Amino acid sequence: MKKALLLHSSREGQTVKILHFIEKELAGDYQCELVDLHEIPNVNLADYDKVLIGASIRYGHFNKKLYRFIDNNFSALKASNAAFFCVNLTARKPGKDTPEGSVYIQKFLKLSPWQPETIEVFAGALYYPRYRFFDRIMIQFIMKMTGGETDSSKEVEYTNWDRVRQFSLRFGSL
Asked: Distance of alpha carbon 39 from its chain centroid, rounded?
């Protein structure tokens, strides 16, 4: 059976949830392995038929370990069937949910030596009750400024699962 490596840089878990969904979509064709980029994995990308990296945005930035992994594995990423997706709350808005309309993807492409051909953007989720006090207040402030949900008792999932399914098909056919 073919193998797919699903790497994640996730803070609150929505990126991992999306990767689990993709893993189910690929089942039958691929044996998938989920790996946390924050643990700086020592994996050989050449051992996999496909590589997918999913990364979330926190306070406007990707985790620095994402860029470190890309720098350390640039040649292998370039030589593999690899794709990338970004998860953020800004993507809940039309026009901000495409690679072309996402400021985070555009910034990523400027900062990263790796320029994946297959890229996608997904809206994340708000998990107010799970956040620490400081994070809850900061995220409420950001959401108030951007016209989003501010009720700290709510959990709101903005992810469009049909788009994730379509991306899974694209990734599976790389």
From this structure: 16
What is each CA distance from 138 to 103, 126, 156, in whole angstroms?
A: 20, 12, 16
Bridging pattern class, strands 125-127 and 2-9: unpaired
In this prediction, residue 128 has a pLDDT band, given cuts at 50, 70 and 90, of: very high
What mean pLDDT value characterizes the chain?
A: 95
| Tokens linked to 152 | 């700290």
The verdict on pTM exceeding 0.90 is yes
3-state per-residue secondary structure call for 49-104: CEEEEEEECECCECCHHHHHHHHHCHHHHHHCCEEEEEEECHHHCCCCCCCCCCHH
> Which DSSP string do the residues of 88-146 spell out, in sequence order?
ESGGGSTTSSSTTT-HHHHHHHHH-S---SEEEEEE-EEEGGGS-HHHHHHHHHHHHHT
C-beta of residue 70 within 8 angstroms of C-beta of residue 115:
no
Query: What burial class does residue 6 get, using C-beta atoms within 10 Å of its C-beta: 0-12 exposed, 13-18 middle, 19+ buried?
Result: buried
